[in-house]
């Protein structure tokens, strides 16, 4: 799809591909098997400007567009889906709401250190009874004088163990559902803030996914992100952009599955010839390529619309839905082409399959994406 990209975008993509191939891919499986956070890789990504690709120079970003960011996440995720989502959660879910809804003081305080990768960000909307039902947030923020006092716990925080800056949702007017929640910026060194349970996961094992506990966390008025009781809008706008990041992660998994399947099919022989010569294998690879390309075009389109300042909520939902299902399809076929070998940890195919599944769940399940699309069509 190079004809759809600018020279600058192609140069960035090729640089990230080289970095991912040489630095990330050789250690991805070992890191994943040991549940090891790729600290050195994230540090190097920051030095390369990959933690702030789509943000302006004035805040320490690379000054590029969102299509460039999409390409970055895809290339990182092709080598390691964990690395891709670490960067995506940091950029899309933490830096973006601060950039879009923050005051100039908040932007100057947080973005330079975050866009350089010096500090990692995390975001959480979910709780035990508030996932897709965001209006059921039980974490509370009570105003006392010129302070906010937060109590409760959040779940499924990607980067939760490493994050120094956290964007979260709390109820500021209980009983009003989505019209009574607000968004706050919380620093991890704030008294009363702690990391709770660290989840043991099926896939993306090089990431930390944690519970965040808030026990009488006292925040200044300046910690409020956006307006009081307007946090649901902040969350939904943030997730619209975040879904493009997850779509790009899914694209990386899908492409890795295709490349591995092709390489294996050319080298594996049965009945005296490479299995790539069999029509059954060829059809699977053709279907994988069609799924990937369809998803890539939808993700590119959503990214272009975001760059153009257009309403891209439906397009980001379409991109995430189709890309996540393409990732699952391609990972499944990759295992099938590998046969019994694909079911063993000696080959990467099983890792792609485990990593792909989460893309159908986080930042809005596939069912929620279908709901978003349908509501836009039927309104």
Structural write-up:
The structure is a single chain. The protein has 379 residues and is an alpha+beta fold. It has three domains: 2-115, Orthogonal Bundle (Butyryl-Coa Dehydrogenase, subunit A, domain 1); 121-232, Butyryl-CoA Dehydrogenase, subunit A, domain 2; 233-378, Butyryl-CoA Dehydrogenase, subunit A, domain 3 (Up-down Bundle), CATH 1.20.140. Helix content is 52%, strand content 16%. The protein has ten helices and ten strands. It has helices at residues 7-33, 39-47, 66-79, 81-101, 104-115, 231-267, 279-307, 313-338, 349-358, 366-378; strands spanning 121-124, 140-144, 147-158, 165-171, 181-187, 193-198, 209-220, 224-225, 269-270, 273-274. The strands form three sheets. The protein has a four-stranded mixed β-sheet with strand order 1-4-5-8. α3 runs antiparallel to α4 and α7 packs antiparallel against α8. The model has no long low-confidence stretch (mean pLDDT 97).
Brief summary of the model shown:
The chain has 379 residues and is of the alpha+beta class. The chain has 10 helices and 10 strands. It folds into 3 domains: 2-115, Orthogonal Bundle (Butyryl-Coa Dehydrogenase, subunit A, domain 1), CATH 1.10.540.10; 121-232, Butyryl-CoA Dehydrogenase, subunit A, domain 2 (Beta Barrel), CATH 2.40.110.10; 233-378, Butyryl-CoA Dehydrogenase, subunit A, domain 3, CATH 1.20.140.10.
CATH topology of the largest domain: Butyryl-CoA Dehydrogenase, subunit A, domain 3
User: What's the helical proportion of residues?
Assistant: 40-55%
- CATH architecture label of the largest domain: Up-down Bundle
Average pLDDT, rounded to a whole number, is 97
Tally of structural domains? 3
Secondary structural class:
alpha+beta
- The stretches of 5 or more residues where confidence is low (pLDDT under 50) are none
Tell me the strand order in the biggest sheet: 1-4-5-8
Number of strands: 10
Strand residue content: 15-25%
Assign the CATH superfamily of the largest domain.
Answer: Butyryl-CoA Dehydrogenase, subunit A, domain 3
Q: Can you tell me the CATH class of the largest domain? A: Mainly Alpha
Along the chain, the helix and strand elements come as HHHHHEEEEEEEEHEEHHHH
Judging from the principal axes of the Cα atoms, what is the shape? globular
Q: What is the chains' assembly state? A: single chain
End-to-end CA span: 34 Å
Number of alpha- plus pi-helical segments: 10
Q: Report Rg.
A: 21 Å
What does the main sheet amount to?
Answer: 4 strands, mixed
